[in-house]
Write a structure and sequence with these properties.
With 240 residues, this protein is of the alpha+beta class. The chain has helices at residues 26-30, 32-43, 76-84, 143-155, 189-200, 217-220, 227-239, and strands at 2-3, 10-13, 15-20, 53-63, 66-75, 94-103, 108-113, 123-124, 126-128, 162-164, 168-173, 176-185, 208-214. The strands form three sheets. Strands 2, 6, 9, 10, 11 and 12 form a six-stranded mixed β-sheet that branches. The protein has a four-stranded mixed β-sheet with strand order 1-4-5-3.
Length: 240
Amino acid sequence: MSDGVENGTIVRLERVDARIEPYDWAYARENAESIAAHWARISAGKPEMFNGRVMLQNRAAIRDGVFEASYFETDYAAFMAWRDAGHPGPAIRNGFAMAALRANDGAFLCGRMGEHTANAGKVYFAAGTPDREDARPDGTLDLAGSVTRELGEETGLRVEELSVGAGWTAVIEQGRIAFMREVDIDLPAEAARALMLERMKTLDEEELSDIVVVRDLAEAEKHDMPPFMRRYLAHIFDGD
């Protein structure tokens, strides 16, 4: 799948060039019954879960600080079944953008996923697997736009209240690449958390149950945080 894209690495990038292209994903085509059964299990009692269309990454290369990737469209149910089965088949990744939101006192602000979501209780930055809303008319994928869109949809924060950095930090794993973009808010962490919690009450759909303040790695260990998030936070805190 890749050229210079190695699992277990953290890479600084100038930009991400992503394009949507046709791709015949054999896993989805050959496992329709098991995918449907898996979806029935994980969505039981969670009527808010929706089997929409998402974009997964099937080709990637890093050249001169630029991440070049192609994506294809598939069902969310197929993605979840593939993920939970341990990423079988040819190398595919969920390549998504995340808003690495940081307050002016240096603390990071993460969301805790609500009980009605597929990742209930998990703590991480605002993000979402790319979907049709991220597709531009020319066939490219707007990952930068996804950063502020997802942050707004999950927390109610507005672009004009934020300072969005340039470039990306890619945390690369089997089956996943988190493209982290630095986003700052000019408030202390507790004030930013209070603002976000208040805004979340007004959202049409609440994905998050709480906002978590993370000031150091010891605090990160207290939460149900995916390993890639811990790796990113260690990378940043060690560099501060």
